[in-house]
Amino acid sequence: MRIRKQRRAGTLAAGAAALALVLAACGGADDLGGGGGGGGGGGDDATSETDCADFEEYGTFEGESVTLFTSIREVEADQMQDSFEEFTECTGIEVTHNGSGEFEQQLVVQAEGGNAPDLAAIPQPGLLERMVRDGHVLPAPDAVEANVDEGWTEDWKAYGTVDGEFYAAPMLSSVKSFVWYSPSLFEESGYEIPETWEDLMALTEQIAADHGSDTVKPWCAGIESGGATGWPATDWIEDLVLRTGGGDVYDQWVAHEIPFNDPQIAEAVEAVGAILKNDDYVNGGIGDSRSIATTSFNDGGLPILEGNCFLHRQASFYEAQWPEGTDVSPEGDVFAFPLPGEAAGEVPLLVGGEFVAAFNDREATQAVQTFMSSADWANTRVEIGGVTSANLGVDPELATSDVLRQAIELFQQEGTVVRFDGSDLMPSEVGAGAFWTGMVDWINGSDTQSVLDGIEAAWPAS
Description:
Layout: H1 4-26, E1 65-70, H2 74-82, H3 85-91, E2 94-99, H4 103-112, E3 119-122, H5 125-133, H6 142-151, H7 154-159, E4 161-162, E5 165-166, E6 169-175, E7 178-181, H8 183-189, H9 197-211, E8 217-219, H10 231-244, H11 246-254, H12 263-276, E9 309-313, E10 335-338, E11 349-358, H13 363-372, H14 375-384, H15 402-411, E12 418-420, H16 422-425, H17 428-443, H18 448-458
Parallel strand pairs: 1-2, 1-3, 8-9, 11-12
Antiparallel strand pairs: 3-11, 4-5, 6-11, 7-9, 7-10
């Protein structure tokens, strides 16, 4: 692996502890069915720089393959595939990754049709729960649970747990509460990073006054994402519920202890609408406010590079969408600051992630699932680039940019108010259904109350 030798020293202590726990829990590599006999698939090649001793716990499976289905596409899909390079070399397991913009719908179709993948990285705990209740997903092996107990907080483990049974380990994690901007544009215009929501709105108004035109606006955005169209707008709403209502209201909303159309939720939606539905503020370099619905999530922030917009609210993982060669740094082409709260120094974090679930108990499937739950895989993937992880064994210095390093440090910082993406926690009929489509209708002109009433009506009775 291109990174293992330079990284091992920095993670040795955490890795040794995790390995001991894993081996104690699973009785050694034999429980994963691989024979535990050391490296396979080229690990004995004298010209190889890979130390296959690092992979002995997973066993050897010559000629076997495991399919991994995710919602990850384009650049990140290639990076995901690269993260298995040494694992495949040493275990013999060929991991075949397939990413789809229609992930949520296709996973259900495949599972119900008896054609499920071996593993799937599910972004919505609500969809994971549905897959479990329908009998498609199997409980995680002991080795996976041991890795999660070692490397993740109890909250993260709970998201992969259904009715007290642990099913799916967290994979990657992202801080969603970021605003991307151009440091050079800010410097040229004399703008400063806002410290409060009021400051952010004042900055928005100032940009519109200074630069507003048919082609230049303060904000740019895009919520088109194939079968998942609408999800970027739900993130906006969730971030504002955290800011206008606080963590308690957010929790009550997600658990449906208050209705979706509660006045406190309507207040948050209206706060978002003050930006996204205002043609004076959006959609720089693209069109009017309704163009947000048809603009790809991948392309939503790119007008910043052309000077057509100044601000783009999107997660830390958006770094992967900037064109090759883009300098992502405080003095570079683009950078990001945390979406401010109502008070200075108050930065609630909306976070997201995926959970790796198994649809069969093949030994090779379990080996890959265990590897992906480890700090070793997380460090590998983080150093390849463009992503973050809330795994406590991740070294922030491995992050490939300042903003990703900042995200990892925020994950590991005590005292920050953190909430998982609400739509991903809600029942899939709502979170990955009515909420998404309702946001598209809202961007296209429907009023707030009718949209919220429609989403509330979609909430399952039990």
